[in-house]
Structures are given as C-alpha cells and as structure tokens.
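Before relying on records like the one below, remember that each one covers exactly one chain. Contacts with other chains, cofactors or solvent are not represented anywhere in the record.
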Amino acid sequence: MAKLMISTQVYENYGSAENPHWKAKGGCDYAVRNFNGNYSKALAVVTALRDKIEQDNEYLREHIIDWAIEADDYLTEDERLQIQYEGKIIYPAKELVVE
C-alpha cells in the first residue's frame, strides 16, 4: 500500500473585496491512506477531492498545487521537523477519505 499526498497553497486577503491584497500564507498537507493505484487513479481521486479541499472566497483561497503517491511511512517536511524538535508529531497531515 501507499498513501496519496496532496499539497495546497493558502492565500489570505489583507485588503477588501473591492481592493484585494492577496498574500501567500503557507499551505496544508492532506493524506489519503491505503491508496492502491496508479497515476490515472490518483488523478481521479485528486479531482474528486478538489471540492473538499479547495476554497475561494473574498477572504481566503486554498488551491491544490501538487500531489504524489508516497510510501506508507512517508512524512511531510512539517512532520519531520515536529519529530526533530518536539520528539513527536503533534499536527499530522490532514487525513481524507475517498468515498
């Protein structure tokens, strides 16, 4: 088995709806565990989950920027840093379930 990792970029509007000022504010990592598929299946899953992940309103935007099929024991950079500095993962990648 593997897991499908999906990464996003988040933008916040520091202006108004009439005069927006968008700033990149990091992103999120999402994991679909027990993924058993190839590139085509992964693309279909990412497309199916797009509505659960992405947001676009006058104050916040979150868009998928990348995805990859990884080994079950794969850790995101943020998870690796948490282990390094905290000794454990406090904030894991958000887990998504494909229905």
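The CA atoms of residues 45 and 85 lie 33 Å apart.
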